[in-house]
């Protein structure tokens, strides 16, 4: 085999990010925070820049210990990554390489699939049922890792806490990875989080600062898991993947709890208004507990280009494995007005 021959990589295409909107308020393609980061973040970044000639703390100890007290776990049960995407790739390198097997929903969060194929592991994709994870069927699959995305991306649907508990108890998977990137937007995040299940073993929970904290551009995510999992991942991670600027920004974000509360309140309110607007315009909407809505439309391409004429960028469902849909992130107030304008009955949509 030559260096160029890696047949298992032929299944993959490079990740396609959402298109940028022509105007900031029209950004509805990438599930970012429409309200940005806490105002304290900018000052923290400036402070950290003075030390930019030094390597960052490889384990981000300060951030790690604050997160540990927030989640009532030990500091060595947390690993900070360059976005939760990096942690998903680390999990694949550690537990799926050399003939591993993963199970996930179909369509999955795209990085779960890409990271599995990147290490030439097998992937069983279990079709969604009523837009949500079919945990019963997934629990019949013997795998090294079971990925559960709660709320799911791209649908925004949730698994019930009882459903997750039962899945963890019944699944033969060696590790159940529960990705909670959007958990802060659920009706009751405290009731939904699987972090308490980590103590029972075989469960790892992923979180990110990219959504409710508005730090997508700085790349900070974290994994909560048993100590030996964290210790294993530490051995193979790039030591300085989370910059000192990103660590300082995440700490500042964490120390301003009012900001995520405001983002949550905004998101839930605008999400409800978007549902009304879209349903009145004749588009069925999948019930979402995330900061985006999956909308059904027979004319996906036309929908995408028609809203673009109003300055709005949305994500075509076919790029996410769900043709016949578009995914629309919860925008600013002004973004909602743009959407209202685009969906007016006298318009072409
Ligand atoms: N998990 C899910 C389900 C996501 O939608 C995203 C964001 N696209 C991530 C993880 C990755 O987040 P991060 O920016 O922390 O890499």
From TrEMBL:
Residues 28-337 form the Aminotransferase class I/classII large domain. Keywords: Aminotransferase, Pyridoxal phosphate, Transferase. It comes from the Bacteria. The keyword Transferase applies. The keyword Transferase applies. Transmembrane segments: none annotated. PANTHER family: HISTIDINOL-PHOSPHATE AMINOTRANSFERASE (PTHR43643:SF3), HISTIDINOL-PHOSPHATE AMINOTRANSFERASE 2 (PTHR43643). This is Aminotransferase class I/II-fold pyridoxal phosphate-dependent enzyme.
């Amino acid at each position: 085999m030559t260096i160029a021959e890696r047949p298992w990589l032929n299944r993959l295409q490079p990740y396609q990010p959402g298109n940028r909107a022509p105007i900031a308020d029209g950004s509805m393609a990438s599930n970012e925070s429409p309200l940005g980061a806490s105002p304290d973040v900018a000052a923290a970044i400036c402070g950290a820049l003075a030390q930019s000639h030094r390597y960052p703390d490889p384990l981000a100890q300060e951030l790690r210990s604050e997160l540990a007290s927030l989640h009532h776990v030990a500091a060595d049960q947390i690993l900070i990554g360059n976005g939760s995407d990096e942690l998903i790739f680390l999990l694949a390198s550690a537990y799926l390489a050399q003939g591993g097997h993963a199970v996930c929903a179909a369509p999955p969060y795209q990085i779960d699939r890409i990271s599995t194929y990147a290490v030439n592991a097998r992937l069983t994709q279990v079709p969604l049922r009523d837009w949500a994870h079919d945990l019963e069927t997934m629990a019949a699959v013997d795998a090294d890792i079971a990925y559960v995305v709660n709320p799911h991306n791209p649908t925004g649907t949730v698994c019930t806490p009882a459903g997750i508990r039962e899945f963890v108890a019944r699944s033969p998977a060696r590790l159940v990875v529960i990705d909670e990137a959007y958990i802060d937007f659920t009706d009751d995040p405290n009731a939904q989080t699987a972090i308490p299940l980590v103590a029972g073993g075989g469960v790892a929970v992923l979180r990110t600062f990219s959504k409710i904290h508005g730090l997508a551009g700085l790349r900070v995510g974290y994994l909560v898991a048993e100590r030996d999992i964290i210790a294993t991942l530490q051995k193979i991670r790039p030591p300085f993947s989370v910059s000192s600027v990103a660590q300082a920004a995440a700490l500042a974000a964490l120390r301003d709890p009012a900001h995520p509360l405001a983002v949550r309140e905004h998101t839930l309110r605008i999400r409800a208004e978007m549902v009304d607007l879209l349903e009145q315009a004749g588009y069925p909407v999948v019930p979402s507990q995330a900061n985006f809505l999956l909308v059904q439309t027979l004319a996906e391409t036309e929908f995408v280009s028609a809203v673009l004429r109003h300055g709005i960028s949305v994500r075509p469902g076919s790029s996410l494995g769900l043709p016949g849909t578009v995914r629309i992130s919860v925008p600013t107030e002004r973004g909602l007005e743009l959407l209202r304008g685009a969906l007016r009955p006298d318009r072409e949509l």
